Amino acid sequence: MGPTLPAHRLPQLTGRLPIPAQTRTSTAPLLDAFNTLPAEEAHTTLLACLHSPRWARRVSDHRPYPTVEALLAASDEAAYDLTAADLAEALASEALPALPDDAYEAAHMALGAAQAAYLTRFGHVFVICLDGVPPDETLDFALESIRSRLTNDPEEERVVAAEELRRLARGRLVSHLRGARP
Fold it and tell me: Are 176 and 45 in contact (CB under 8 A)?
């Protein structure tokens, strides 16, 4: 008989231990539905996320995606590969960010003036992804961003606008997978 190991005491555990969450996300059934849509229907759905036929076709053509993360990675990659013409087409279909309903009239005027200056300087609408910005900070964030971006040269701003479009497409795609309309 060999030596015995010393006894180890487990710490006193009170209450219940959490059971780890399963890794499958709530978007998985909708990912399955997206993966099996007819090609044209998937393309139309994607165009609602980002109005770039090239981006939509690329993302649609690479289905099925094994995970939401894989779909989002493909979306990002396709967005990074957009040409200047693709970006112009996507930007032409974007709307100005909406202000909260309770914003002061002066805020509407300030944002409207900044957007007009932006449109004049860059030739396209100002785009910004407000995902993760608390609702009570969206106005200040948008105004600060547009004023800051007005100092960019056109090439710098093209890169920033392309990144914002990529982020918008990603957020809209996630919303779609959660069952909301993009």
Answer: yes
Q: Which residue range(s) make up the domain with 117?
A: 95-160
pTM tops 0.70, yes or no: yes
Split into its structural domains, the chain has a count of 1
In a domain, 19, yes or no: no
Over the stretch 115-129, which tens digit does the pLDDT of each residue have? 999 999 999 999 999
Residue 85 located in a structural domain: no
Give Cα separations from 67 to 10, 23, 72, 76, 133 (angstroms). Answer: 39, 11, 9, 14, 26
Task: Identify the burial level of 56 via C-beta atoms within 10 angstroms of its C-beta, where 0-12 means exposed, 13-18 middle and 19 or more buried.
Answer: buried
Residue with tokens 């993009």: 182
What is the rounded distance in angstroms from the CA atom of residue 134 to the CA atom of residue 19? Answer: 31
Q: How far is CA 5 from the centre of its chain?
A: 55
How many other CB atoms are there within 10 angstroms of residue 75's CB atom? 25
Q: Can you give the pLDDT at residue 97?
A: 74
What is the rounded distance in angstroms from the CA atom of residue 126 to the CA atom of residue 81? 21
Q: In angstroms, what CA-CA distances link 4 with 7, 8, 9, 10? A: 9, 12, 15, 18
